[in-house]
């Protein structure tokens, strides 16, 4: 029995009992490991209609409540008025809050609500005398109220609003009536064109969901053109091994050690969200993971899980489910890339009544041919951002 994948409905794989509702699901049933594996998995995941071509969602998360000292000379043990960097997290340092210096361990007690960048505190709770240096990180570690005290200052934080557009995808195919009536040893040409057009249509959607840029052209007119934002241009959690190689154990651009990759998983990839994520990788990254798997991990081949073949790498941080994306072989620069997706926080959105469909007989009057087209008006929705990761430029793996 195939292993379950978080964020997807059902407990099994595509099978003969699966009834496709439209051509998008039909394609994923016939070619789940074809050129659109993301769409294949989204078909078994979360799909939702929208009644507006622009759809919005609210993203909410607990704040870090971390502040940083902003005074070059630092502070001795007696100074109680501290200058900190401007940050929304300052607002959480209300009177009564406990503040800890992450560098020294000093515990402080806030005596007045933070005003702009001024933090007023009682220093060195417990008697130990610590000094403060520039750029020390301070974090809120609870609240201590005096007996019989009044209620503290109320605090709150708002969710952020994210949006994306449904993009209209159209793929037409046409054959002359003469060709349609000709007996060919290679089979019916219209049926062949129909199949090839669907593959191209799904390929277009797949590429847009990775590489698309959110935009609306001629938005003030009655016929705007909308572009859906794809993963690569929407994610903020981006690791460029060409420039950040030293952070992950490399000694030159593009290098990352096995320990560096472990650190990446713990510190970034699995910092937020699920303990199981899907990684779509290019061939160079696939080779790096294969070598790591031979040396240190236990790769587990999952043939046919939800119709898409995956290799599971079990790590201390979480399970990384890897798929070598066929289009990453075709797109320049993607051989060294890895796009890690947390499926419970990713949705396929389509305009009501405009999910993938075959529209027949679109030829002009008087034409001695038939013309059909596939049409989809859809987009990608990220309900959260930090749970996904884009790693690029991983060209070599060095032993630690």
Can you give a write-up of this model?
The protein is α+β, with helices and mostly antiparallel strands and 400 residues long. It folds into two domains: 274 residues; 78 residues, M1 Pyruvate Kinase, Domain 3 (Beta Barrel). It is built from eight helices and 24 strands. The strands form six sheets. The protein has a seven-stranded mixed beta sheet with strand order 13-23-19-15-18-17-16, with helices on one face. Strands 3-8-5-6-7-4 form a six-stranded antiparallel beta sheet, with no helix packed on it. Strands 1, 10, 20, 21 and 22 form a five-stranded mixed beta sheet that branches. The two termini are 37 Å apart. 34% of the residues are buried.
Mean pLDDT: 86
Biggest sheet strand order reads: 13-23-19-15-18-17-16
Radius of gyration: 27 Å
What is the overall shape?
elongated
Number of separate structural domains: 2
Helix content, binned percent:
10-25%
Structural class of the helices, strands and pairings? alpha+beta
Percent of sequence in beta strands: 25-35%
Distance between the termini: 37 Å
Instruction: Give the strand tally.
Output: 24
Number of helices: 8
Let me know the largest β-sheet. 7 strands, mixed
Low-confidence stretches: 9-14
């Amino acid at each position: 029995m195939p292993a379950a994948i978080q964020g997807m409905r059902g407990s099994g794989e595509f099978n003969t009992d699966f009834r496709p509702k439209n051509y998008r699901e039909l394609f994923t049933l016939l070619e789940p490991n074809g050129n659109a594996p993301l769409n294949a998995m989204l078909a078994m995941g979360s799909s939702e209609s929208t009644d507006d071509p622009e759809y919005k969602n609210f993203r909410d998360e607990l704040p870090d409540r971390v502040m940083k000292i902003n005074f070059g000379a630092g502070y001795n043990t007696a100074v109680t008025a501290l200058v900190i960097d401007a940050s929304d997290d300052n607002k959480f340092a209300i009177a009564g809050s406990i503040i800890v210096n992450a560098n020294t361990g000093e515990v402080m007690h806030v005596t007045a609500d933070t005003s702009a960048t001024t933090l007023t505190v009682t220093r060195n709770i417990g008697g130990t005398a610590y000094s403060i240096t520039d750029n020390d990180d301070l974090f809120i570690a609870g609240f201590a109220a005096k007996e019989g005290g009044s209620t503290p200052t109320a605090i709150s934080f708002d969710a952020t609003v994210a949006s994306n557009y449904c993009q209209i995808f159209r793929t037409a195919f046409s054959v002359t009536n003469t060709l349609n009536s000709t007996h060919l040893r290679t089979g019916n040409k219209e049926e062949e064109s129909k199949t090839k057009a669907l593959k191209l249509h799904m390929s277009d959607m797949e590429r847009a969901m990775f590489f698309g840029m959110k935009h609306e052209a001629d938005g003030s007119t009655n016929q705007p053109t909308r572009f859906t934002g794809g993963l690569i241009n929407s994610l903020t959690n981006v690791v460029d091994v060409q420039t950040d190689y030293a952070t992950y154990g490399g000694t030159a651009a593009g290098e990352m050690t096995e320990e560096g990759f472990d650190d990446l998983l713990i510190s970034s990839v699995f910092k937020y969200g699920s303990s199981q994520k899907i990684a779509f990788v290019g061939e160079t990254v696939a080779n790096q993971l294969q070598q790591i798997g031979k040396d240190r991990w236990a790769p587990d081949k999952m043939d046919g899980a939800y119709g898409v073949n995956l290799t599971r790498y079990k790590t201390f941080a979480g399970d990384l489910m890897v798929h070598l994306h066929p289009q990453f072989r075709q797109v320049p620069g993607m051989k060294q890339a890895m796009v890690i997706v947390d499926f419970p926080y990713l949705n396929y959105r389509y305009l009501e009544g405009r999910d993938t469909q075959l529209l027949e007989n679109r030829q002009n009057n008087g034409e001695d041919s038939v013309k059909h087209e596939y049409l989809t008006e859809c987009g990608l929705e990220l309900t959260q951002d930090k749970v996904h990761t884009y790693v690029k430029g991983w060209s070599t793996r060095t032993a630690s």
